[in-house]
Specification:
The chain is mainly α and 267 residues long. The chain has twelve helices and no strands. The protein has one domain. Helix 3 (40-48) runs parallel beside helix 5 (86-113), helix 5 (86-113) crosses helix 8 and helix 9 (179-207) packs across helix 11.
């Protein structure tokens, strides 16, 4: 049980699940563009129809939950040592919002795994629905705005990673040669996606209108009118999926028990 709460175990399971989701989404976006508008749900629908799809979906749920827990711990106790300065806090805040996104993704996958395909499909664009619920809270627009700012900050860091390749410092020395190229292309695509998601959240907060929010599928639908950018982002998401699968084996993550670390941090 203790091993299951170690940061390295959680992260590696999460990277594997993230790789499958992004890789298949990029593949769908390149091959069946309209289907990709459903974002993550298109991936889960595709997986469910495969032989053994129920088992694969269950594994995806486990991996996405693990990654969400890892991101929450990264935000709370600074597992990756980003520090307490403005940049470090911004990265950790982005990890916190990212954790919520992956846990929501896990919930969507769970609905497919449990056989609620129709119910899950009705919430294909869950980002707008979630933002609509938050906007109904007192000062909910502040939370949505903060989420938008976090996504924009994450987009900047993704773009920096794509330009500099600094992420390789956290990869094992024996990682495949193609790792850096795949990571740069994938992070560039994610920078575009995160920027558009963040901007849509800020607009939603400013206008207090949840229909402005775009999730992964909404971003792809928006970009379909821009052929070159769409193809580049779709290919980038596919490459990011491959990069994530490499991370599942070669990413260096501290073997820290996140439960114990969190207890020490807040006791």
């Amino acid at each position: 049980m203790a091993k299951m709460t170690r940061a390295d175990v959680l992260a590696k399971a999460g990277y594997a699940a993230r790789g499958v989701v992004y890789g298949l989404l990029g593949w769908l976006a390149l091959g069946t563009r309209g289907k990709a508008d459903e974002g993550q749900n298109a991936v889960f629908d595709m997986v469910q129809d495969m032989p053994g799809g129920g088992v694969v979906l269950t594994l995806l749920v486990i991996g996405l939950v693990a990654y969400g827990v890892y991101k929450l711990a990264s935000a709370a106790v600074d597992l990756e040592r980003h520090g307490q300065d403005a940049k470090g806090l911004a990265v950790r805040a982005g990890a916190g919002f990212g954790a919520l996104a992956y846990l929501a993704m896990a919930w969507a996958a769970a609905k497919f795994a449990l056989g609620y395909r129709h119910y899950a499909s009705e919430g294909a664009h869950g980002g707008a629905d979630m933002a609509g619920g938050v906007l109904g809270w007192p000062l909910g627009w502040v939370l949505v705005g903060l989420a938008g700012a976090a996504f924009l900050a994450a987009a900047v860091f993704q773009a920096i990673g794509a330009a500099t390749g600094k992420f390789m410092k956290r990869m094992a020395p024996d990682a495949p040669r193609a790792t850096e190229a795949l990571g740069r292309a994938g992070l560039a695509a994610r920078a575009v996606v995160f920027a558009l998601v963040g901007w849509s959240l800020l607009r939603s907060a400013w206008l207090v209108r949840h229909a402005e929010v775009r999730d992964l599928g909404g971003v792809l639908a928006h970009l379909r009118g821009h052929e070159t950018v769409y193809l580049a982002v779709a290919a980038g998401l596919l490459l990011f999926g491959l990069f994530s699968l490499i991370c599942a084996k070669y990413r260096v993550v501290p073997a820290i028990d996140v439960v114990h670390a969190t207890r020490r941090r807040f006791n």
